Amino acid sequence: MQNVLVVGGAGYIGSHIVKDLCDNNYHVIVYDNLSEGHREAVSCNDFILGDINDSNTLNSVFEKFKIDTVMHFAAYAYVGESVINPEKYYKNNVAATINLLSSMLKYKTKNIIFSSSCTTYGIPKYIPIDEKHPQNPISPYGSSKLMVERIIDDYHKAYGLQYMILRYFNAAGAHPDGTIGERHKTETHLIPLILKTITGEIESIDIFGNDYETPDGTCVRDYIHVCDLAVAHRISLEILSSGKESKAVNLGNGIGFSVKEIIALCEKITEKKVRFKISGRRSGDPPFLTASGNYEKDLPDFKPQYDINAIIKTAWEWEKNKKF
Question: Can you name the residues that pair with 248 across neighbouring β-strands?
Answer without folding.
Answer: 165
